[in-house]
Amino acid sequence: MKQVVVIGGGVVGLTTAWALVQAGHRVTLVERAEALAEGASRANGGQLSYRYVSPLADAGVPLKALGWLLDRDGPLRFRPDGTLAQWRWLAAFLARCRGDVNRRMTARLLALGAFSQQSFMALQREAALNAIELRSPGKLVAYRKPASFARAAASADGRGPERALSRDECLALEPSLADCETPWLAGGIFTAGEAVADCHALCLQLAQRLAQHPGFAGVMHAQALGFLQQGDRVVAVRTSMGEIAADDVVLAAGLQSTALAAPLGLRLPLYPLKGYSLSAPIAGHHRPPAVSVTDFERKTLYARIGQQLRVAAMVDLVGDDTRLDPGRLAALHRTVRASFPKAADYAQAVPWAGLRPATPSGAPMLGATPVRGLWLNVGHGALGFTFSFGSARILADLVSGRPSPLDLEGLGLRAA
Prior knowledge:
The chain has 416 residues and is of the alpha/beta class. It has a domain at 59-82 and 134-195 and 272-356: D-Amino Acid Oxidase, subunit A, domain 2 (D-Amino Acid Oxidase, Chain A, domain 2, 2-Layer Sandwich), CATH 3.30.9.10. Helix content is 31%, strand content 26%. It has helices at 11-22, 61-70, 84-95, 99-127, 146-155, 167-173, 199-211, 256-261, 326-339, 384-399, and strands at residues 3-7, 26-31, 47-48, 76-78, 139-143, 162-166, 187-191, 195-196, 216-221, 224-230, 233-239, 242-245, 248-251, 271-281, 292-295, 300-305, 308-317, 350-358, 365-368, 374-378. Strands 4, 5, 6, 7, 14, 15, 16, 17 and 18 form a 9-stranded mixed beta sheet that branches. A 6-stranded mixed beta sheet has the order 9-2-1-13-20-19, with helices on one face. A 3-stranded antiparallel beta sheet has the order 10-11-12, with no helix packed on it. Helix 1 runs parallel beside helix 7, helix 1 packs parallel to helix 10 and helix 4 (99-127) crosses helix 10. The radius of gyration is 21 Å and the shape is globular. The mean pLDDT is 96. It comes from Roseateles terrae.
């Protein structure tokens, strides 16, 4: 049994801690905030999109980005933050905006998504998470432009789980799409079995299960400051509450991981992709979508989570800024009221903004580092909820000295 410290109390850190205690290790979780799951796990989109994992970097994206930047309600915003890290990340991202790179990375992420789906089912059996508003209604990616839908439909060849649906078939599947005054739907790609759940509720319930586990040493709410080393090996974590001895340390602290790794000579290519969400209450007279819907062109997703409609959107490259921008919130309100006007009480919607730690490649960084005893589980971007279960099991196997259950080519520090 090893003494392992996991740094980060979001969904990635909590699932990693669970996988490690289940593997027989003694685990301490370090979280700098006063409560768990208050960062990117707090009010994210809630979709478990195991099949919809294509990275943002792709051929044609730079040209599309120019159009998005000129649209006041567009999904993208860019503001120079005065750091070299922003420009370095953008350069690496643009270098990956090629079709062949996107196809290779999509294949790797699909494998990780499938493994994560299996891992989530195993976690459900082990931890009996029963208050997380889990549903599996399937996912509909809705297209506004006929040309975009035609390209997507051509890729859905019928051999996989995706089905191309005409506009009428989409409306039959999800009648709430017909509620807008101005029809916007050209067609859609439906994937059965895709799920939605309350990420924050899952984190809190998993923390309760961890507290009852004999292998869990507890949560230390403290700021991680750095590491103690003996030779080339990490032997302890320095925190604002004192030192914690460790045989191994897993960095799962999102953006904070960059500053922690830097003194060890490790440059983690992470940048915050700021996203927004609305959580709007649903009453009896509302008509929310039953299936999980993603508006492809507007990059907006809709998921019913219990008696709320969660709407998540936008990628803002504006640095470490979690403030609620009134202009961006107004844009999101205009989009949702035009697309699903009867789905929820938007006047009572609770807004949220969070920073999603992303790599230029769109793939998380999993596995060992050049520093012995230090492991990475970071950089999941907008798919942290989806990938957390699989990446946690991978880390637990690696820390335990077992080979990864998944080929990690393209998912390591150098690949990012």
